[in-house]
Design a protein that fits this description.
Layout: H1 6-18, H2 30-48, H3 54-80, H4 87-107, H5 115-143, H6 149-168, E1 178-179, H7 195-219, H8 221-231, H9 233-238, H10 243-269, E2 271-272, H11 279-292, H12 297-321, H13 325-331, H14 334-350, H15 354-367
Antiparallel strand pairs: 1-2
């Protein structure tokens, strides 16, 4: 063999150094992709508020608040299997925590808009996190010991007991609830947007702060532990995973998201009371999570939009048809619940995994090459030297 000369070796090294690296650039981690997607979606939602009138922006803010609760509920039920029928109580805890913190800040002299208003809202959000997190921790400890219908019954009892609880605690305002100061548009933006659009902005940002950590949890090791506990607690325990710790953590994460949703709803409506978080609303949250698709945050967003917009759409159609006044009064509220029930039955029969699973299947079919079938290929024949088994 002929040895390579040093001059040729140096020339080759210089040429390789000048040549661009063919290896692809470093890819984003799953957490970075989630954060990037959250920023993009938040900016798009904020930009969409310029295309909506004030009432639609108010509806968008309510959808964002409801999305916080349904996202936490779909994570809790879809990944850990813990059925909660009282997530409205966690929203109420967040709303009351927000109201108590904001009113205390106003009494301490933190009034007005601008920096004072921003600080007051931030303190209110912290109060909602403390209240909902504490209640979620207690429910998580109970959920670590209770299963199936027992946990569902406990959370259901809390929804029923909420009005009586607010009556016994004078600081919660009784049946009338608590009022909070009006949060107006900052002076810098007063010539650009109206108050409904400003509330929609706040709701969108808070929803992003509430749901993005849930997406990170679902895609990371915490999500794997939740799925392992849901699949088989004994096998998860043998693998070194504590089912009790996983359940408590999932309940607390879900409660924090629901509490932020209650805080946003309190900010938008300027009040919080037990009548808003009744049994019907709590069951609608479960319906929204099931219709959207358990475990899917996109499905939770679709379910939240249905919960807010479907009653308005039913009332609009009823008014356009020209239903008599007495019949319309009887159908008020009941027709929307009937439509929700029928929608739940149809989605369960047609798409058992919810709207998110149906959309995923449609994307899979559209990306499948033409002429490809799902039938498995026939196994290859055995070698001639190997006898066939009878």
């Amino acid at each position: 063999m002929t040895a390579t000369r040093p001059a040729e070796t140096e020339e080759t090294a210089v040429r390789d150094a000048r040549r661009p690296d063919p290896r692809p650039a470093r890819r984003l981690t799953p957490t970075q992709r989630i954060l990037l997607r959250a920023v993009v979606l938040t900016l798009l939602a904020v930009a969409a508020t310029f295309l909506l009138d004030p009432y639609r922006n108010y509806q968008l803010a309510v959808v964002a608040a409801t999305f916080c609760a349904t996202a936490g509920l779909t994570l809790l039920v879809g990944l850990t299997g813990q059925l909660s029928l009282g997530h409205a109580v966690l929203m109420a805890a967040g709303g009351y925590g927000y109201a108590l913190a904001v009113n205390a800040a106003s009494s301490a002299g933190l009034d007005g808009d601008g920096a004072a208003g921003t600080a007051r809202v931030v303190l209110g959000l912290v109060g909602s996190l403390v209240a909902s997190g504490a209640l979620g921790g207690l429910l998580g400890l109970a959920g670590a010991r209770l299963r199936g219908p027992y946990l569902a019954g406990l959370t259901l009892a809390m929804v029923v007991a909420l009005p009586a609880l607010t009556t016994q605690v004078p600081a919660l305002g009784g049946d009338q609830g608590l009022a909070v100061p009006f949060e107006g548009v900052p002076e810098v933006l007063s010539r650009l947007i109206v108050v409904e659009q400003w509330h929609a902005w706040v709701a969108i940002v808070v929803a992003a702060l509430a749901v993005t950590p849930l997406a990170v949890l679902r895609s990371g090791r915490a999500g794997l532990r939740m799925r392992a506990v849901h699949g088989d607690e004994t096998a998860a325990r043998l693998s070194g995973v504590s089912p009790a710790r996983v359940k408590v953590g999932a309940f607390v994460a879900s409660s924090l998201a629901a509490g932020l949703g209650g805080a946003v709803l309190c900010l938008v409506t300027q009040s919080v009371g037990p009548g808003r978080y009744d049994l019907a609303f709590s069951l609608l949250l479960v319906v929204a999570a099931v219709v959207g698709g358990l475990g899917s945050l996109g499905g939770a967003a679709a379910g939240a939009a249905l919960v807010v917009l479907l009653p308005w759409l039913v009332d609009t159609v009823t008014g356009a048809v020209g239903v008599p006044a007495d019949l319309e009064q009887r159908l008020s509220g009941n027709l929307a619940v009937l439509v929700f029930g029928a929608l739940l039955i149809v989605v369960t029969l047609a798409w058992p995994g919810g709207l998110a699973r149906a959309a995923a299947r449609r994307r899979h079919r559209s990306h499948r090459p033409r002429g490809r079938t799902d039938a498995p290929a026939a196994p290859p024949p055995p070698p001639a030297s190997q006898p066939l088994e009878r």
